[in-house]
Design brief:
Blueprint (H helix, E strand, L loop, with lengths): L2 H32 L3 H25 L8 H28 L5 H13 L11
Length: about 130
């Protein structure tokens, strides 16, 4: 295999490892909110899962094309993935918040915490 193919595979692996860390953070918040109530824990889980699901969708769209072979198509795929991710996040959050049993504060706090974790992705991707 060429160096570029190995790098692409390593980046995919790191990206999915990062999403796994987001899922772990979601579970930590869910456990913490469980001490308040099961409804708060359920809401926290939903908030974290929204962030995780949209990141998985982004990864599936972004890594479809090998950037080494087709850089412009890869850039377009990443931009399209980011757009789909934002729209999908808004739709999922709106759907989850429509449920009467969902508590907004735990849901949004967990969602924001999982999204903010992206600021620390340097620990997962070495440039």
């Amino acid at each position: 295999m060429t160096e570029q193919v190995l790098q692409l595979k390593e980046n995919k692996k790191r990206a999915y490892r990062f999403v796994f860390s987001q899922l772990c953070l979601t579970l930590v918040f869910t456990a913490g909110f469980y001490f308040e109530s099961s409804a708060a824990a359920s809401s926290a889980l939903k908030g974290g899962l929204v962030a995780v699901i949209v990141n998985v969708v982004f990864l599936l769209l972004a890594f479809r094309i090998d950037a080494a072979e087709q850089p412009q198509l890869a850039l377009n795929a990443m931009q399209r993935g980011q757009s789909v991710k934002l729209v999908f996040a808004a739709v999922l959050l709106a759907l989850v918040l429509q449920n009467k049993q969902t508590e907004a504060a735990p849901l949004l706090l967990t969602y924001v915490a999982v999204v903010v974790l992206q600021c620390f992705k340097g620990f997962f991707f070495k440039h």
